[in-house]
Amino acid sequence: MKEKKSKITSFEDLKVWKSARELQRKVSILAKTFPKVEQFELTDQMIRSSRSVGRNIAEGYGRYHFQENIQFCRQSRGSLTELLNDFITAFDEGYINNEQLDMYREEITNCHKLLNGYIGYLQRAKEDSKTKEEHINYEIINPFNE
What we know:
Layout: H1 15-31, H2 42-61, H3 66-92, H4 98-131
């Protein structure tokens, strides 16, 4: 029996966004353990870059144009790389140990792979819509139920 595919009706349904959200949650918890001296430096930047990943996925999804969506996903990819650099800095400063660094590196790598897969999907969909000379119609859903 074939497994039924779930319909994507919001960015919240995207596996890559869910992965980014979980990473963001973990970064927020970890940042609270860093020394106060880092509050406006490293922790602030880690929180901002982790939030940027999900924000850009959501914003790209809301653009309803493949190329724009892809561009926002590429920005998310950059934020993931920036976040990894911040984790390396946290390790170098002694705020996290090697095991934690490896764990976060794995989470970032997983999110990066999901993001690359989503970008590939969008690129194929963009090419398919050109080949068929069709316009993709997006169902507009009001998230506020107005």
